[in-house]
Predict the structure.
Amino acid sequence: MAEPFDVVIIGGGPGGYVGAIRAAQLGLRVALVERDKVGGTCLHVGCIPTKAMLHTAEVFEQLAGGKELGITASDVAVDLAAVHTRKARVVEQLYKGTLGLMRKHKIVVFEGTGRFRSASKVAVALHDGSETELDARHVVVATGSAPRSVPGITIDNDRILDSTGALALAEVPASIAILGAGPVGVEFASLFRAFGSAVTVIELLPTLVPLEDEEIGQALERSFVRRGITVHTKTTATRAEVRDRRVHLTLAKGEQTSALEVDYLLVAVGRSPVTDGLALDAAGVAGEKGAVRVDGGLRTSAPTVFAIGDVITGQAPYRLAHVASDEAIAVMETIAGVQAHPLNYDAVPRPTFSFPQVATMGLSERQAKEQGHDVKIGRFPFSANSKASIDGAREGFVKVVVEASIGEVLGVHMIGPSVTELLAEGVAAKYLEGTIAEVAGAVHSHPTLSEAVKEAALDAMGRVLHM
């Protein structure tokens, strides 16, 4: 019999393939099972293609507004077929790079669908119709998540879309409604509005990006309205019907109902763990509401089986590619018996690539107060930042949430230009247990957007300079 693999990973997304690389670095013999393409949802129909299209939308907006910058550009238009071609090229380039990494690290990739036969055996139904069985000392479940819908609305990816269907549209919609104002919803709202669609956003909770600090959601709504996006908060869609190639929606806000008719509906209300067909029971792995339950070390109820990423419950509720990747690294280090570096979930960055961008980390102001912290707030608007004025991107602000007594950074919340990049400073400060005084005391280049972070820190200390 062949020597068992040290680790068999089921799922080749950002958690699975990154975990495979780290395991190989640690000298483990690794098999990676992927039912579609290595890279998973994020690379092929999620993060990467979405951001590629958003980049095009951002450049298009800049060219359309070039007159203010002294640039005359005529006949600026969106060629959606060309946008898709570039998107596919970006994805293919990264996909080939990922496959190259698998070869470099001698990771054995099985293209097929995996399921447990026991805690140490994984059957793989290969794409060629055959089946093989893998022996494993450890198994890591990294099967991710898939878009979900709501009662009364059936996704057909013709007129009623999930995120995958929205990425594949061959035409710019004349009108589109988006149900759900989390990161996926507001990113697609930004994209389609930039391309010229009439966009309506429908959110059940009181603010956009409702899991973030309230001020961020309120500011994003104001920006969306200025951009011509219609926003309905505290509202849901109870019904959606397709008639004559149009989507007819019934909206409910409290006791009031209304009707909305659009060309397309995008359902962006969240994602559900993918565990169907895994045969978790055969491995003695306990589940909970379709997810895999894990302990603080990401171990399941079966001692040799771990789980990471979107498929798990029992850890922080962040369904983010970079969280899955870092969880995978920690698991492989545990399996290899070296010093593991578990995630600090309090320092997880949460980027949203809407227009304007949103980037957050840690506790909101409300959460910090509810947890009993003595809270001090610092804010600084990009309207007072020199680089933002140079770039013509002055909307938004940086907000820091601080423990007043010791200066601990509890949260960083940003909306505005390039904040998904700026947030790394706050993450580093939190991870290194830095204080707000250290953020404020660090020299920041001038003129840069990063000065807004320093000024927000100074504001929390009562020493803001440019406001």
Observations:
- The chain has a mean pLDDT of 96.
- The chain has three domains: 5-146+272-345, 160-269, 356-460.
- Residues 116 and 279 are 5 Å apart (CA to CA).
- The radius of gyration is 23 Å.
